[in-house]
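[step 3/7] inverse_fold.run input=structure_tokens len=319
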């Protein structure tokens, strides 16, 4: 486990021609604040004031939910006044009705990384969306879309039981892919089954990996399980206190529905369903959403377990 992260950072930035710093970890693990500390450390390493346009860092979002506009509280999106002078990219770039995919994200983030490096700056990728991060770091090449008839059939099958049968089949055939998302993520479930039925290959095998074109330094945020659970519970409570229910209501008032891609994000669908049903029990909702966040954190750590590139940090010792 690496604790002298500044030393590792200084060495990496100094020797790398195309540096890419990555900060990953489970939900509520402190990635945002740590990424800001890294950005300031890079400026110090390069002897460049933060207000300069070159020689500094720029942060790229790698959280699929933070791509969406109007969804701030429930995604723990950083506020402009909290950015500490660091440029941030790929926040609020999609409408909640637009579909976000790992393939689309890879194209966009690759473009922005190129622009940042072209300015002589250091890109810092920050987030917890496992497939999105893997798409970039492992240079995943995604298979082509399935035919419209197959997609229509799978959508009908999904709608028949809210994806239960399709997801159970996916878990049986390709547990690695199924571990990355839940049964409620309709677009991911259908896409995985499109690959399975359209190519005869497991989705985890159909994604061909290549060589990452950047010089990677990957930091992983690690907490004791009990402490992380406490942090997830506390943050979920804080989100409700900050007006998460009102945020979801404003989305519904704007004309968005629980079937829109953005509204399928963790917590938003549950709150929207409760609002629509007229049975809004805040305490019960808070516990349900916190439990799902804890399950998601477990899936995240399972996904990254054993990746030798990640330098895990004991976050409790950093604070």
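[step 3/7] decode complete -> sequence:
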């Amino acid at each position: 486990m690496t604790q002298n992260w500044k030393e590792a950072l200084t060495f990496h930035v100094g020797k790398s021609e195309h540096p890419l710093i990555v900060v990953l970890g489970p939900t509520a693990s402190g990635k945002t604040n740590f990424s800001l500390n890294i950005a300031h450390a890079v400026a110090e390493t390069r002897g460049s004031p933060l207000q300069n346009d070159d020689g500094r860092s720029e942060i790229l979002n790698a959280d699929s939910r933070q791509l969406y506009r109007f969804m701030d509280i429930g995604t723990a999106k950083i506020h402009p006044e909290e950015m500490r002078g660091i440029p941030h990219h790929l926040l609020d770039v999609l409408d909640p009705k637009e579909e976000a995919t790992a393939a689309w994200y890879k194209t966009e983030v690759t473009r922005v990384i190129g622009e940042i490096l072209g300015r002589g700056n250091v890109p810092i990728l920050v987030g917890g969306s496992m497939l999105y991060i893997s798409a970039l770091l492992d240079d995943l090449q995604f298979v082509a879309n399935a035919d419209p008839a197959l997609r229509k059939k799978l959508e009908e099958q999904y709608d028949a039981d809210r994806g239960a049968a399709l997801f159970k089949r996916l878990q049986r055939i390709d547990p690695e892919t199924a571990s990355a998302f839940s049964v409620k993520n309709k677009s991911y479930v259908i896409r995985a089954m499109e690959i399975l039925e359209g190519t005869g290959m497991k989705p985890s095998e159909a994604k061909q990996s290549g060589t990452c074109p950047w010089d990677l330094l990957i930091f992983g945020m690690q907490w004791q399980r009990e402490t992380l659970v406490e942090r997830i519970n506390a943050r979920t409570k804080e989100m409700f206190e900050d007006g998460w229910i009102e945020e979801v209501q404003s989305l519904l008032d704007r004309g968005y529905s629980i079937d829109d891609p953005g509204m399928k994000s963790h917590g938003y669908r549950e709150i929207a369903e409760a609002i629509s049903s007229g049975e809004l029990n805040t305490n019960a909702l808070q516990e349900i959403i916190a439990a799902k966040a804890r399950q998601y954190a477990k899936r995240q750590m399972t996904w990254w377990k054993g990746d030798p590139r990640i330098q895990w940090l004991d976050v409790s010792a950093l604070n």
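[step 4/7] annotate
The two ends are 16 Å apart (CA to CA).
The chain has three domains: 5-139+211-224+308-317, 148-206, 226-298.
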